Amino acid sequence: MNERLRSLPSVDEVLARPAVRALAERVGRAAAKAAARAAIAEARARLQAGAAEAGDPVTDARVLELGASEAAPRLRRVINATGVVLHTNLGRSPLHPEAVQRVAEVAAGYSNLEIDLRTGRRGHRSAHVEPLLCELFSAEAAHVVNNCAGATLLALGAIAAGGAAVVSRGELVEIRVPEILSQSGCRLVDVGTTNRTRIADYAAALDANPGALLLRVHRSNFALVGFTEMPSVEDLARLARERKVYLLHDLGSGALDPGLGEFTAAQSLREGADLVLISGDKLLGGPQAGILLGRRELVEKCRRHPLSRALRVDRMLLAALEATLRLYREGRAAELPALAAIHAAPDELRQRATKLALALIERGLAATVVETEGQVGGGSLPLRRLPGAGVALEGDAAALLSELRAGTPAVVALLREGKVVLDVRCVAEVAELASAVASAAERAGQRAASPESATLDEDGTEV
Ligand SMILES: *Cc1c(COP(=O)(O)O)cnc(C)c1O
Question: Phi and psi of 364, rounded to 5°?
């Protein structure tokens, strides 16, 4: 084996081969070199594992294949066949075509990002979306930062740093709450128990910590059911007013339409929250963003805080957010891809799944239409199941899932009872998905998949 290892070609030898020189011409020397290195490393690993191979262990074909993947973008498009609409791992909410167009326009050149074109004076970035946000959410003032976790950090840092924030134990969501609180320089005072917190618990915490802020956190990705008790936003707001402290609501979801079943920011403000924080790319259906809505003096305090500079948004985000908000203003929110996917009718989804199954059967695959249960995802409406439809495929599921992910476009699908299932809820292009699946199946069939290396639950629908 040592002799075989010593006989492996060097990187320079591989780079000097005519096929690899041609590769370097196409994709650049750096990518060709990385591909040569990777091919040699693969061959070494195979030899060390005791493989007895005839011929050159570093083939031109493998170097070219690795070279092509080196040259392909790492961040790329994926067809979401999971049925989870706001899938955090897949980028949450897709943008509306008009938002995409506005991003392209603003990204390609200069813009009035921080200049008031009427006066020629310096303006602030949020000004482009603040009037729309105030109108849509019935808020006095608004500010936008990079994401909602950033908005929470900023709001706590600007309003409560050095002080305390009172939070129910039933709302101490991992990562977000205790960690962000401590990073913002604010002391956590937890009250109540996991399932029950009464208004008297908050009042007692304010007795012991006068001037503390009340923080309500939306539970997002889990629900409390059964014997539970939690004061309403209205109750908390009344207590906050009595004690002359602020009520901050980390709401997350960003739904504008109460029909979605999520408590909305407008409702929270109406019930008396002083500042409400939401995400741009959850139920609002726009780009990643953290939106602060509420009383003018608090919003201004956040805007002027140094963290606001660190969390500031770029022009592409603002362009996408403005376009998304305009769709709401024009009464066209149903066109937003995330909302369209959530509201898709079961009949329409069955038709889409049937179309996909037929296209796959035509290509010689064994495909069956099945019922599915989608989810909203992104930590919104954790209990809501979306009855939908999909296509189940026969064959070696682990190999197929892996080839689906490796294709262009990549496809992320589900594994159900040992079968690959393609949920069509979030699939706009059925014909494109059918071709991607057909070529993945062909590659999976050609490849001898080793069952030991396959992990069957790797495609779980983590949100
Ligand atoms: C999702 C969520 C966040 C985090 O939002 P990002 O935009 O992902 O940073 C914060 N708070 C709540 C309640 C959420 O649901």
Answer: 90, 15
pLDDT band with cut points at 50, 70 and 90 for residue 175: low
205 vs 137: CA distance, rounded Å:
31
- 208 — phi, psi (to 5°)? -80, -25
Whether 218 is in the pocket of ligand 1, judged by its Cβ within 6 Å, is yes
Q: Which pLDDT tens digit goes with each residue over 423-432?
A: 999 999 999 9
The closest alpha carbon to 195, from 220, 224, 238, 166, belongs to 224
Instruction: Give distance in angstroms: CA of 86 to centre of ligand 1.
Output: 12
Q: Which residues are bridge partners to 214 per DSSP?
A: 166, 247
In one-letter notation, the amino acid at residue 421 is V
Sheet strand arrangement including 414-416: 84-86, 367-377, 380-393, 419-423, 414-416
Residue bearing the CA closest to ligand 1, atom 2: 252
Any long-range contacts for 31-34 (C-beta under 8 Å, 24+ apart)? 31/67, 31/70, 31/71, 32/63, 32/67, 32/70, 34/66, 34/70
Query: What percent of the chain has a predicted confidence (pLDDT) above 70?
Result: 95
Please name the residue whose Cα sits nearest to atom 11 of ligand 1: 252
pTM exceeds 0.85 for this model: yes
Residue 128 Cβ inside 6 Å of ligand 1? The answer reads: no
Query: Residue 362 and residue 13: Cα distance in Å, rounded?
Result: 46
Which tens digits make up the pLDDT trace of 27-46? 999 999 999 999 999 999 99
Both tokens assigned to 166: 């009172």
Cα pseudo-dihedral 208, 209, 211, 215, rounded to 10: -110
Helix (H, G, I), strand (E, B) or coil at 199: helix
Ligand 1 probe mutation, 88, 90, 148, 171, most atoms within 8 A of CB = 148
Q: Tokens representing 2?
A: 């040592």
Between CA 35 and CA 40, with CA 37 as vertex, the angle to 5 degrees is 105
Residues in a beta bridge with 84: 375
Q: Which residue, chain included where needed, has tokens 């908000």?
A: 325
